[in-house]
Design a protein that fits this description.
The complex is a heterodimer of chains A (322) and B (933). Helices cover 27% and strands 18% of the residues of chain A. Chain A contains 10 helices and 11 strands. Chain A has a 4-stranded antiparallel β-sheet, with no helix packed on it. In chain A, strands 8-9-10-11 form a 4-stranded antiparallel β-sheet, with helices on both faces. In chain A, strands 1-3-2 form a 3-stranded parallel β-sheet, covered by helices on one side. Chain B has 19 helices and 30 strands. A 7-stranded mixed β-sheet of chain B has the order 3-5-1-12-9-10-11, with helices on both faces. Chain B has a 7-stranded mixed β-sheet with strand order 29-8-13-14-15-7-30. In chain B, strands 18-26-27-28 form a 4-stranded mixed β-sheet, with helices on both faces. Classes of the chains: A alpha+beta (322), B alpha+beta (933). At the A-B interface, helix 6 and helix 10 of A face helix 3 and helix 17 of B.
């Protein structure tokens, strides 16, 4: 029902063309967004949440569609993350829990990893935001305070609610970024940058081209635990992914999502725990719980979500240990 | 039944070479009208009552409409007659109406919770190219409201805005983008006022009450309506054998219909207003438009489009309907306004957020000696149906149980939030949940089975409640017995492992409101239906009943088809326009099938009598010995002697032209005389009992409902398919309220989840298996015995689930919805209280029957026979609430019991002990304070 604000849509067919387009738009001093599946960006546009005059679609870029057990292009729809396509079982499991089957046909790997952070003061219409005298994240020109943590407008604490990120993290994935300064590759765990507005290390003009998995990832057994009210549509209210190479505690990895502005790999907690002795899922679960601090900006209260980190972590660990 | 519908097919082989048509052999044969073909289908005896020679069982005995049954369509599962239009996308909903030259209207909404408008400057708006008309509250100062007693709305704010999203002004432009741009050009000077969000605060005096009712205003509070009702002997509750007490907080919920509100207004060349709107009650809109626009009703034609779900949320006359009409009048062009989902939540009219307190007591024989209910309900910014809701929260709890006494205090307060209103199960749902859970708790303390506690305390058929409601048919006992058996209750209740639970809940609801809001039922009927039959034999039915998806058009078509013994394809229901539809109160209070179908039966009998008279003239047999069946009328003792429907019709038309008949329904006189006696009064009541099974994850608090056995007494299922659909749909909606749905008002008073992602309606994954069980009690006054099935079935699912959660984890939860955080908080508290550190160590509740169990079982066995005789009218003695307590039903109770009271105001000595809402009685009205202002 809501009217889409006008924008110019660009369809580059190669990476170079895309990067060049971006550079041209930037040179004109104009803003743009990348769009893959559009299931996150476009609803935000309809709500007048930071709409831009230009949108560059990555759909025409062939490399963005690559799909194998070790390489997943940013344009790969979540509905293609299946065992038949030789995708890691953990990713198949996680993708099947994203949104609804209909949305998964459009939503993509890249879009899910670069998902905008969410907050119930932010994901609202313009009329609504006017009624709270604007939001620090959505209405940057207004100098508005953050509504989650009042009386400050320096930090945005909107919550990252993507499902795939923690799962890619515990499979030790890297991401390939491409921009005007060329290509760079980094571990996914280093891709995110703490701040609900900045979200990740992408520079303007740069985009996430694909995700790479190491060969060893195939040996890993993983489990993803997602907390949500309904078994369809809902974003995670908390999510824990865990994996290991069965039998080898030193390979254990645990990551969380939907608890803070970025997903997080809990290497520190796992390392400390294993150093202290045998793997004890209950104790480790408590350690992970202690390390996260959700805020009140999603459907369920933060205290509860934090409590659930323990349960979810325990279940994820038991899921891979059994 | 086979279809008479036209189907494309191969051309008839019988084609005459001279180009003339072979009679009755068209390429697409017309729907059968009988013609001269004497062949007919045999009568379907399975659907003709045994009381008139058929095989359909009539456990409740004779019914006045038995003689009108023809075995054609009543009682058979048929798809709704408008379903083809819907599944092919051809149904025209509000936003589908496109008139030439239309403008797009947009509404400017308040960014403030509560503020005074000091000035509005529209000059910049008017200067924007593409803007054709602008309107503000000053253009329409007349107030309207759904109830004549509480007209507190304007088309747009006249002086004050009362919630974020309240209407301030509107604009019509050549396209949507221009209209949206125009909204940013209004220059408004505001004076912000101190808002009220907490309904408890609404009971206190306020500098600037949200509305002002003059001499009737209650002090300076925000109380819109207060209610006190007390019946019976309150001394009974002083020394209870058992009791329970629960304080509930229930969130507001929204109907969540698929179609957002939309309206198209057009002033035709003759200056008449044509208004297209998806309305449940077009007649109220019709009246309100007349008031607001200062135009007589006959110069307005309200056209009800298809309605994409209503559930009570489209039954108020709405300000945006006025806005469209105002803009169209100014612009001289049609104006269309369609809401965003957010606007749907801002206009709201959903179920009231409520604080409900229920105390109940039982005596040593397991009789319920008292219900004591206090309901504080949050009305939001406007009255809407709230006057009625305030009563319903109490009085609809006076059945199905026989009570020693009943005490209710209720208050509805205005707050600076979107207005609450009527929603499926209007006013009855929240209290019902609290009462049914209270019974479960009380049964536990009495060491008895909660189903047996209920069975031993039911009011029988043909009785009177403590508040004076007249109960006619009553299938409550059968409903309880069938869900008990269907769910295998006796081997599951209090015997399932931790995390698995089963629970029971009952329901009771009105089948049509006995009092039409705008007139005295003695002077004007509730519903009128016109039927017209012309030469082609097709039957056109004019009714004002608003089909909102519940199938009222189908019900009307069915009963007409049944009486006339015609295929339903020959019945054409016209119900969209107020120009052609008789006045009808539309779809609310589950009245349509009961009232409208009754009127339709009467009209159809009027047509039938004309046909039979013609057949009498043709055949020489009196109508008493003529039979209607499948487009034929024939002599009862020799089916070969007969005429076709068309022959009889043409004969009947010989002198008069088209046959015309009308039928009306009015409710019989009933009810008490105390203040509020009309609230909850209905010509019949539905009863239901559900058993729900749940799984509770004790580590996360997530509850999933896995199975529901849902028995509903709808009198007679005219269309079992539609009844089952209503039962399953009600389960879905009720499950939403009890488990996930909630209008969240945040720290700042803003509605935080005005969208369908965060307002969590259960998806198909959350739907349990629902075993829909239809109980047929055959209501003596219902059409062919039918009662409502649209709202009552929602009530029992809430308490059934809450009780099942208790059965699963032994924790009573009274904050709805039972979202996982609420359940988990309950579990944490329980662990702390019991010194446990692992949720898996919680002990499930268990039941060992106490001595009272036998007493209850014996009593319910006795009552089963009592009820059977009364249901069959073999026992027609009077029965009023109180007989169970030993009173003589033929003498006034007040004569028999010292202290028996029927009161609508508290005694001075009661004031100190009233519940939360009851505190409204500590205040005086302005007229009693010497003030008025």
């Amino acid at each position: 029902m809501m009217l889409m604000p006008p924008f110019e849509l660009h369809h580059p067919s190669t990476v170079d063309e895309a990067v060049e387009l971006a550079a041209t738009i930037m040179a004109k001093g104009e803003a743009f967004d990348w769009v893959a599946g559009g299931t996150d960006v476009l609803p935000n546009y309809k709500w007048r949440i930071n709409p831009k005059p230009h949108v560059i679609s990555l759909a025409g870029i062939e490399e963005a569609h690559v799909l194998s057990s070790e390489e997943l292009g940013c344009m790969v729809p979540l509905s293609s993350l299946t065992a038949e396509n030789d995708v890691h079982p953990l990713l198949v499991q996680a993708a099947s829990k994203v949104a609804s089957s209909l949305i998964r046909k459009s939503a993509t790997v890249g879009g899910n990893l670069c998902l905008d952070t969410r907050c119930f003061w932010y994901n609202q219409s313009e009329d609504w935001r006017r009624s709270i005298d604007w939001c620090h994240k959505a209405d940057c020109g207004t100098g508005a305070d953050c509504r989650v943590i009042p009386n400050q407008n320096t930090l945005c604490v909107a919550t990252y609610q993507g499902d795939l990120a923690p799962n890619f993290m515990v499979l030790d994935a890297s991401v390939v970024l491409i921009g005007p300064d060329g290509e760079r590759t980094m571990p996914l765990a280093e891709f995110y940058e703490l701040d609900g507005m900045k979200k990740n290390v992408l520079k303007t003009g740069e985009f996430l081209l694909k995700v790479m998995l190491p060969k060893e990832a195939a040996q890993r057994k993983g489990c993803y635990q997602k907390l949500r009210v309904r078994d369809s549509w809902d974003f995670p209210e908390a999510g824990i992914a865990a994996s290991w190479v069965p039998g080898d505690a030193s390979t254990l990895m645990v990551a969380s999502t939907a608890l803070e502005s970025i997903p997080r790999l809990h290497a520190q907690q796992v390392g400390d725990h294993l150093e202290a002795g045998e793997l004890d899922p209950v104790v480790l679960a408590k350690d992970v719980q202690k390390s996260v601090k959700p805020v009140n900006n999603t459907a369920l209260p933060p205290r509860y979500r934090r409590s659930m980190v323990k349960t979810l972590t325990k279940r994820a660990l038991l899921g891979i240990l059994e | 039944m086979g279809s008479y519908r036209q189907q494309p097919g191969t051309p008839s082989s019988e084609v005459r070479k001279d180009g003339k048509r072979v009679a009755g052999k068209q390429v697409f044969p017309p729907p059968g009208s009988g013609g001269s073909d004497p062949k007919m289908r045999p009568r379907d005896l399975d659907f003709i009552p045994e009381t008139v020679g058929g095989k359909e069982p009539k456990p409740a005995g004779d019914h006045i409409h038995d003689r009108d049954r023809t075995g054609t369509v009543v009682g058979k599962p048929i798809p709704l007659v408008d379903s083809n239009a819907k599944v092919t996308g051809q149904a025209w909903y509000g936003d589908d109406v496109r008139l030439p030259g239309e403008l797009i209207g947009k509404i400017l909404r308040s960014p403030h919770h509560y503020a005074r408008i000091k000035s509005i400057d529209t000059s910049r708006v008017e200067a924007l190219p593409g803007v054709v008309a602008v309107s503000t509250g000053q253009d329409a100062p007349n107030r309207f409201g759904v109830l004549p007693v509480t007209k507190d709305e304007h088309a747009m704010a006249v002086e004050k805005v009362r919630h974020v999203g309240d209407l301030v002004a509107c604009v019509a432009a050549v396209d949507e983008a221009t209209a949206i741009e125009a909204l940013s050009l209004f220059d408004i000077e505001w004076e912000e006022l101190e808002p009220v969000f907490d309904p408890k605060k609404g009971l206190e005096d306020h500098d600037e009450p949200i509305h002002w009712r003059g001499k009737y205003h209650l002090a300076r509070t925000n109380v819109q309506k207060r209610v006190f009702q007390e019946f019976g002997d309150r001394s009974l509750v002083k020394t209870p054998h058992a009791s329970s007490h629960g304080s509930w907080t229930m969130s507001g919920v929204h109907h969540g219909f698929t179609e957002p509100h939309a309206v198209v207004a057009h002033w035709d060349p003759n200056g008449r207003l044509q208004l297209y709107t998806p309305q449940q009650v077009p007649h109220y809109t019709h009246r309100a438009l007349s008031t607001v626009l200062d135009v007589p009703m006959h110069q307005i034609n309200v056209i009800r489009t298809f309605v994409g779900g209503g559930f009570g949320g489209k039954s108020d006359p709405f300000p945006h309907e006025m806005c469209a009409a105002l803009l169209a009048r100014k612009a001289g062009r049609p104006v269309r306004i369609t809401f965003d989902r957010e606007e749907v939540y801002w206009i709201n009219r959903g179920r009231h957020p409520s604080h409900i307190d229920v105390k109940m007591t039982a005596d040593e024989s397991g009789r319920i000696s008292g219900f004591d209910i206090d309901a504080l309900i949050d009305g939001g910014g406007f009255a809407s149906f709230g006057h009625v809701t305030s009563y319903y929260n109490g009085v609809l709890a006076t059945a199905p149980y026989e009570l020693g006494s009943f005490h209710y205090t209720g208050a509805r307060v205005w707050t600076n939030k979107p207005a609450s209103g009527a929603m499926r199960g209007h006013g009855a749902v929240n209290t019902r949940c609290a009462v049914e859970v209270g019974l479960d708790e009380m049964a536990e303390s009495m060491k008895v089975d909660p189903i047996d506690l209920r069975l031993a305390n039911l009011l029988p058929p043909h009785s009177r409640t403590i508040s004076g409601f007249r109960i006619t048919s009553n299938g409550m006992r059968e409903a309880l017995e069938r869900v008990r058996e269907g769910s295998d209750w006796d081997s599951k209740f209090r015997q399932l492992p931790l995390g698995k639970g089963i629970g029971i809940g009952c329901g009771f609801f009105i089948s049509g409101s006995g009092l039409p809001i705008h007139w005295d039922p003695k002077n004007f009927p509730h519903a009128t239906v016109h039927i017209q039959v012309d030469m082609d034999g097709g039957v056109t039915v004019h009714t004002g009943a608003a089909d909102i998806g519940q199938g009222s058009t189908t019900a009307v078509a069915q009963v007409v088809a049944e009486v006339l013994a015609l295929p339903i394809e020959m019945i054409h229901v016209r119900s969209h326009e107020s120009d052609t539809s008789p006045v009808d109160l539309g779809s609310y209070s589950s009245r349509v099938t009961f009232m409208n179908a009754n009127a339709a039966i009467r009209a159809a009998i009027g047509i039938r009598d004309q046909l039979l008279k013609a057949a009498w003239e043709m055949l020489g047999y009196h109508p008493n010995v003529l039979v209607l069946n499948d487009r034929r009328i024939y002599y009862k003792h020799d089916p070969a002697v007969g005429v076709s429907y068309l022959q009889a019709l043409h004969k009947a038309q010989a002198d008069t032209g088209a046959l015309i008949a009308r039928g009306a329904y009015r409710s019989p006189p009933m009810g008490g005389v105390h203040k509020g006696a009309a609230a909850g009064l209905a010509p019949a009541y539905s009863f239901s009992a559900y058993v729900a099974e749940v799984d509770v994850d004790v580590e996360t608090g997530l509850v999933s409902c896995t199975n529901v056995w849902a028995a509903h007494d709808c009198g007679k299922a005219l269309n079992p398919l539609a009844v089952k659909g209503q039962i399953i749909g009600s389960c879905h909606m009720g499950l939403g309220q009890v488990l996930t749905e909630k209008m969240v008002y945040g720290r700042t008073g803003h509605l935080q989840n005005a969208n369908l992602l965060e307002y969590k309606i259960p998806s198909v994954h959350e739907m349990p298996h629902v075993e829909a069980i239809i109980v047929e009690s055959s209501d003596p006054e219902g059409p062919f015995g039918a009662k409502e099935a649209g709202e009552g079935p929602l009530l029992p699912i809430l308490p059934a689930v809450v009780n099942a959660v208790y059965d699963a984890i032994g924790i009573r939860l009274r904050d709805l919805p039972l979202t996982p955080d609420v359940v988990y908080a309950g579990i944490e508290k329980h662990l702390k209280q019991h010194g446990l550190d692992d949720a898996e160590a919680i002990e499930s509740p268990r039941l060992k029957h106490g001595p009272l169990q036998k007493v209850l079982v014996a009593r319910s066995d006795e009552h089963r026979e009592r009820d059977r005789l009364r249901q069959r009218s073999e026992d027609t003695s009077a029965y009023v609430n109180g007989v169970l307590f030993g009173f003589d039903p033929d003498r006034p109770l007040a004569e028999q019991v010292e202290g028996w009271r029927e009161a609508d105001e508290p005694l001075p000595e009661q004031l100190a002990e009233l519940g939360f809402a009851g505190r409204a009685w500590l205040k005086k009205e302005q007229r009693h304070m010497g003030g008025d202002e």
